[in-house]
Specification:
- The structure holds 2 protein chains of 2 kinds.
- Chain A is of the alpha/beta class.
- Chain A has 12 helices and 11 strands.
- In chain A, strand 3 and strand 4 form a beta hairpin.
- In chain A, helix 1 runs antiparallel to helix 7 and helix 9 packs parallel to helix 12.
- In chain B, a hairpin with a 2-residue loop joins strand 1 and strand 2.
- Chain B is α/β, with parallel strands linked by helices.
- In chain B, helix 1 packs parallel to helix 6.
- In chain B, strands 2-1-3-4-5 form a 5-stranded mixed sheet.
- The chains are: A alpha/beta, B alpha/beta.
- The structure holds zinc ion (2 copies).
- One zinc ion binds next to helix 5 of chain B.
- Chain B: InterPro entries: CMP_dCMP_dom (IPR002125), Cytidine_deaminase-like (IPR016193).
- Chain B: This is CMP/dCMP-type deaminase domain-containing protein.
- Chain B: It comes from Loxostege sticticalis.
Chain lengths: 367, 163
């Protein structure tokens, strides 16, 4: 079904499309997308670097540089600006502007550092980066302002670039997202006759994958109209729980085989025909008690959604995004932004909140 | 209020006995308890089964059985929970437009007010009051964390604590 001609989409108008057209149109677009996925990074990484004001001055006699630095480091340490260098050519960084409590910087230096009286000239105030640059791009930007220390992070560099996933892996991600669309169409077909583009935007579906075996563990659809908490991610987490001999909500048709119990049986049959090359089912679950009986020290089997990926049609809301943190998901992929309640890009970036105990990565840019 | 929080604390104690994170919750409508539950994350192997969400399920079930529109019913609900609702539960309660939330102790790990104020993202948020019998709620949590979460993998059990 990925091979439908791309010309088809040109004549489609979302208001008159049938659900099958809409779904296969999106799946085509995703499969034919030429761009890599984009990570949603913290503001600190995605925004321009923040600045603060400092005083600088030139040194009259170069021979005084080392003495000046020694005195300054001792009496006016840089503290939170320690990523900045003290010296740039013959110019010395004196202190952060906010610390100066006299009317002029000259007075301040004279009163604080009498031993450096008359050492400096050409005092001025400039902007410098208030935080250490984390990316090369930020480093280049920072260096235009003032010399600073930089420790490149290869992974972060790659994550912020345009080539994070290799092409073969991208195809996997696109297939799993396509399954989320296929599932949405399958569920919608069972409830409504005519499906519009608006309706597809109003629902959500998700696919949970164990990337260690590239297998689909759960496929879940939104049930919020009947149960306001049953958003697709909440359903997905419960579906995964079922593959681990747990689960709180009952389903219509579930498989007795616990490895396949995260997917509705009829839907599974449908997906196996549509996606013959895709693997379905979780790794066999063993409880901690069983592991101990088997003489294993650590729980080696699945635990919650640890190391799992989830693919959602739509950016999850605050409830769902936090639920995915509780579930310890490794990566979240979504297709459409949720401008009203999206908690991973649109309204907030919950995955970048430092104080939370688990952080997943977020990717988007399927279309 | 104290009476409802006492009930919630009893449920939290029940959770502790069941080796679950001790959080208990009751929902009231017009001064009558309509739902009560506690955390059952380990039992269900579902990390979202917090006391508040269990109570929400009970209310929906109640509404379904009695042919009541749950959306208007939730607007009358007052929530008494021993620990500040986490970001997930706070968002769920905001989605449902509940009237009021009263909690015992703050939740510095996941709190939907303390860690990230979820109400900022909703037009009309509920009335939120904290610090009702906080010491009792906190002492239950401390008792739980003296042990370790029995279901987490060995290596993670010590540093990562569920709530
Ligand atoms: Zn949601
Ligand atoms: Zn919660």
């Amino acid at each position: 079904m990925f091979e439908e001609p791309a010309t088809k989409k040109a004549k489609l108008d979302p208001t008159t499309m049938t659900e099958k057209d809409i779904i296969s149109d999106y799946i085509n677009k995703i499969k034919n997308s030429k761009s890599n996925l984009q990570a949603v990074l913290s503001d600190e990484l995605s925004h321009t670097i923040e600045t603060t004001k400092v005083y600088i001055a030139s040194i009259k006699d170069k021979r005084n540089i080392s003495k000046a630095i020694q005195v300054l480091n001792e009496k006016l340490p840089l503290n939170e600006l320690s990523h900045l260098k003290r010296v740039r050519k013959n110019t010395i960084l004196l202190c952060q502007s906010s610390t100066v409590n006299t009317s002029t910087i000259e007075e301040y230096i004279d009163s604080k550092l009498p031993e450096l009286k008359d050492v400096f000239e050409l005092f001025s105030e400039i902007d410098v980066p208030s935080q250490a640059p984390k990316l090369k791009r930020q480093y280049t930007e920072a260096m235009k302002m003032w010399s600073c220390n930089f420790h490149p992070d290869i992974y972060l560099e790659k994550l912020s670039g345009d080539h994070f996933f290799p092409e073969d892996e991208l195809n996997l991600h696109r297939t799993f997202m396509a399954i989320a669309f296929e599932a949405a169409g399958w569920y919608l077909k069972s409830t409504v006759k005519e499906i519009t583009g608006d309706l597809l935007q109003a629902v959500n579906s998700s696919v949970v994958v164990d990337p260690s075996i590239n297998s689909v563990v759960a496929v879940s659809f939104d049930n919020r109209l009947r149960h306001p908490v049953q958003h697709t991610a909440m359903m997905a987490i419960d579906d995964v729980a079922r593959t681990q001999d747990g689960g709180a909500w009952t389903r219509k048709t579930t498989c007795n085989d616990s490895e396949l119990s995260g997917i509705d049986m009829d839907l599974l049959e449908h997906l196996r025909i549509k996606f013959p090359d895709t693997k379905f089912g979780a790794k066999k679950f063993t409880s901690k008690e069983e592991n101990i009986e088997n003489g294993e020290k650590e729980n080696t089997g699945p635990y919650l959604c640890t190391n799992y990926y989830i693919y959602l049609l739509k950016e999850p809301c605050f409830m769902c995004s936090m639920a995915l943190i509780h579930a310890r998901v490794k990566r979240v992929f979504f297709c459409f932004e949720n401008s009203e309640f999206g908690a991973l890009k649109s309204k907030a970036k919950l995955h970048t909140v430092q104080s939370l105990n688990h952080h997943y990565e977020v990717f988007t840019g399927f279309l | 209020m104290v009476e409802f929080m006492n009930q919630a604390l009893e449920l939290a104690k029940e959770a502790l006995t069941a080796k679950e994170v001790p959080v208990g919750c009751v929902f009231t409508v017009d001064g009558t308890i309509v739902a009560k539950s506690r955390n059952c994350v380990n039992l269900t192997r579902n990390p979202t089964r917090h006391a508040e969400l269990n109570c929400i399920d009970q209310v929906i079930e109640h509404c379904k059985t009695n042919n009541i529109d749950h959306l208007s019913y939730f607007k009358k609900v007052c929530v008494y929970v021993t620990v500040e609702p986490c970001i997930m539960c706070a968002a769920a309660l905001n989605n449902l437009n509940v009237l009021e939330v009263v909690y015992g102790c703050a939740n510095d790990r996941f709190g939907g007010k303390t860690v990230l104020d979820v109400s900022n993202f909703y037009e009309n948020s509920y009335i939120l009051t904290g610090n009702l019998m906080a010491d009792e709620a906190m002492s239950l949590l401390k008792q739980f964390y003296k042990g370790t979460n029995p279901n987490a993998p060995e290596s993670k059990a010590k540093k990562k604590k569920e709530m």
